[in-house]
């Protein structure tokens, strides 16, 4: 099965392949992060990012990753690399561009 991915060359030269996250990926990442973070909103944000990355990560350099290998995502990246990847992930998922290219206008609507 072929999927469309983004090839990201980090400042360190490491090449990372990311698939665009889906709504389902976001839902599952939120469920997992919520269980781990509990009532801590700071930890929730960090865990949500990490879980979404695990669901989007396809390959690092020449190594395709299994889901169990993705659990060790902390072992693959320095903090600098992680920050770069998260910027790209937010960009390809549209998280930083909340309105995207959609158009919003006010219209009069008559309800039945």
Structural topology:
Blueprint: E1 5-9, E2 15-19, H1 23-37, H2 41-56, E3 57-60, E4 63-64, H3 67-70, H4 79-93
Antiparallel strand pairs: 1-2, 2-3, 3-4
Helix pairs in contact: 1-2
Structural class assignment: alpha+beta
Our count of helices gives 4
User: Rough shape?
Assistant: globular
Distance between the termini: 47 Å
Strand line-up of the largest beta sheet: 1-2-3-4
Summarize the amount of helix as a percent range. Answer: 40-55%
Radius of gyration: 17 Å
Number of strands: 4
Q: Topology as H/E string?
A: EEHHEEHH
Low-confidence stretches: none
Question: What value does the average pLDDT take?
Answer: 86
Strand content: 5-15%
Largest sheet: 4 strands, antiparallel
Structural features, described:
By secondary structure, the protein is an alpha+beta fold. It has four helices and four strands; from the N terminus they run ββααββαα. Strands 1-2-3-4 form a four-stranded antiparallel β-sheet. Strand 3 and strand 4 form a beta hairpin. Helix 1 (23-37) packs across helix 2 (41-56). The longest helix has 16 residues, at 41-56. The mean pLDDT is 86.
């Amino acid at each position: 099965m072929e999927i469309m991915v983004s090839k990201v060359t980090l400042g360190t030269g490491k090449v990372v392949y990311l698939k665009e996250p889906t709504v389902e990926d976001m839902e599952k990442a939120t469920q997992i992060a919520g269980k781990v973070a509990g009532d801590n909103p700071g930890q929730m944000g960090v865990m949500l990012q990490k879980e979404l990355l695990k669901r989007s990560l396809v390959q690092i350099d020449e190594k395709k990753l299994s889901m169990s290998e993705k659990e060790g995502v902390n072992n693959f990246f320095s903090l600098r690399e992680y920050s770069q990847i998260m910027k790209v992930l937010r960009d390809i998922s549209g998280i930083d561009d909340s309105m995207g290219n959609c158009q919003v206008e006010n219209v009069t609507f008559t309800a039945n």
